[in-house]
Amino acid sequence: KAAFVESRLFDDDPAAIPDHPLLRVFDLATHEFLWVHSDQMEPYQYDLTLSDKLILPKTHRDLLDVLTTNLDAFTADIIEGKSAGNVILAKGIPGVGKTLTAEVYSELIKRPLYSIHSGTIGTTAEDIEKSLREVF
Known about the structure:
ATPase AAA; alpha+beta; P-loop_NTPase; 4 strands; two-stranded antiparallel sheet; two-stranded antiparallel ribbon; 2 domains
């Protein structure tokens, strides 16, 4: 493949513009930026059937359904520039399905899940605030 493609930008003058096949992408699993060849890219296919496999108490499922059904109602700015999306803080002992629930609902709303574990953001209020500012 040619490294440059001929193009006509202004006044029908031919100009050479670079044609680079690499894209910089962010890996949500490793939290790293990577270079990927464009031939390796494909649209992500969300699995909308996952909620049928998730076992939750009805009250929990109803709450999550409300929070994920009409996202526009929860992302509208009441104060200009203060709402950047939804954040759900899940609390519970290990193994009850917090992460699995987040992954399933991420699929349902067709948005990537950026998962942060408490051990990676610090133990003091200052460290946590600094880490969250860097992430968001």
